């Protein structure tokens, strides 16, 4: 009898674990992308390859290019609408596909993908993507022209305050994975004069077109509202970096 009860408990336990991880995995998939986000048109050309989704504006008039790191485990396509908005403002935007969807394992691939020493590249990302973007800047001082961080408490384990690089951190009031206190705790480790902007009512998940991620809080603004604020702030920052490079 005890053996049967033990077997039943084991089956129920593993079933619950399976259901939980399946539910979690579905929330990391991209969803509800605006129509034609990944389709080329007269305004933006979209090139999808093994290593990146590249958004190329038809009105290209800038020398700077943007490199975007996806969040850990997230479907990279979840950030395609944001990257397309950047391209629509005149910048080539490279949405990097990470090995096993983990920036911590794939962030160094941009060294072989781009001529970083000769070009003007602005680097950033969401969540773990932001963490690894800041780590890349830490490991290669002076190489990247601008750094943007979305929904992350990093840099946490190293200090960028002595690096002369324009930086922007966007964080959300209701982020359950990178809370406001965690973000502010590491403020002194950001590059000098970094801009910190809080998105009131936003959460972690709505930095991308994702489901609600585990431990995240419910937002008080819509996905469209948070995406617009994020895009507007990012484009303003990229424009500022571009002007400084001229």
What's the SSE blueprint?
Elements: H1 2-27, E1 44-48, E2 52-57, E3 64-69, H2 80-88, E4 92-96, H3 103-106, H4 110-113, E5 120-126, H5 128-139, E6 146-150, E7 167-172, H6 180-185, E8 195-199, H7 223-245
Name the CATH homologous superfamily: Alpha/Beta hydrolase fold, catalytic domain
Q: For the CA atoms, what is the radius of gyration?
A: 19 Å
Number of strands: 8
Structural class: alpha/beta
Q: At CATH's second level, what is the architecture? A: 3-Layer(aba) Sandwich
**SS summary, helix count:** 7
Helical percentage: 25-40%
Runs with pLDDT <50, length 5+? 11-23
Sequence of secondary-structure elements: HEEEHEHHEHEEHEH
| CATH class wording | Alpha Beta
- By CATH, the topology is Rossmann fold
Q: How many domain regions? A: 1
Written description of the protein model:
The chain is an alpha/beta fold and 246 residues long. The protein has one domain (31-245): Alpha/Beta hydrolase fold, catalytic domain (Rossmann fold, 3-Layer(aba) Sandwich). The protein contains 7 helices and 8 strands. It has helices at 2-27, 80-88, 103-106, 110-113, 128-139, 180-185, 223-245; strands spanning 44-48, 52-57, 64-69, 92-96, 120-126, 146-150, 167-172, 195-199. An 8-stranded mixed sheet has the order 1-2-4-3-5-6-7-8, with helices on both faces. A hairpin with a 3-residue loop joins strand 1 and strand 2 (52-57). Mean pLDDT is 91; it is low at 11-23.
């Amino acid at each position: 009898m005890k053996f049967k009860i033990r077997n039943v408990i084991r089956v129920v336990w593993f079933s619950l674990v399976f259901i939980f991880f399946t539910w979690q995995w579905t929330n990391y998939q991209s969803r509800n992308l605006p129509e034609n986000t990944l389709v080329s048109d007269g305004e933006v050309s979209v090139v999808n390859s093994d290593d990146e989704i590249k958004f190329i504006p038809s009105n290209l008039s800038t020398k700077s290019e943007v490199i975007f790191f996806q969040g850990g485990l997230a479907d990279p396509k979840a950030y395609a609408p944001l990257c397309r908005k950047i391209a629509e403002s005149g910048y080539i935007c490279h949405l990097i596909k990470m090995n096993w969807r983990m920036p911590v394992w794939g962030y160094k691939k941009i060294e072989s993908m781009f001529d970083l020493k000769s070009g003007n590249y602005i680097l950033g990302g969401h969540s773990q993507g932001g963490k690894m973007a800041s780590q890349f800047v830490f490991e290669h001082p002076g190489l990247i022209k601008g750094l943007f961080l979305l929904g992350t408490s990093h840099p946490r384990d190293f200090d960028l305050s002595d690096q002369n690089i324009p930086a922007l951190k966007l964080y959300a009031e209701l982020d359950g994975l990178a809370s406001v206190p965690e973000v502010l705790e590491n403020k002194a480790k950001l590059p000098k004069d970094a801009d910190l902007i809080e998105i009131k009512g936003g959460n972690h998940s709505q930095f991308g077109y994702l489901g609600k991620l585990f431990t995240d809080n419910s937002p008080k603004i819509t996905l469209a509202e948070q995406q617009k604020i994020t895009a507007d702030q990012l484009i303003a920052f990229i424009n500022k970096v571009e002007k400084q490079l001229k």
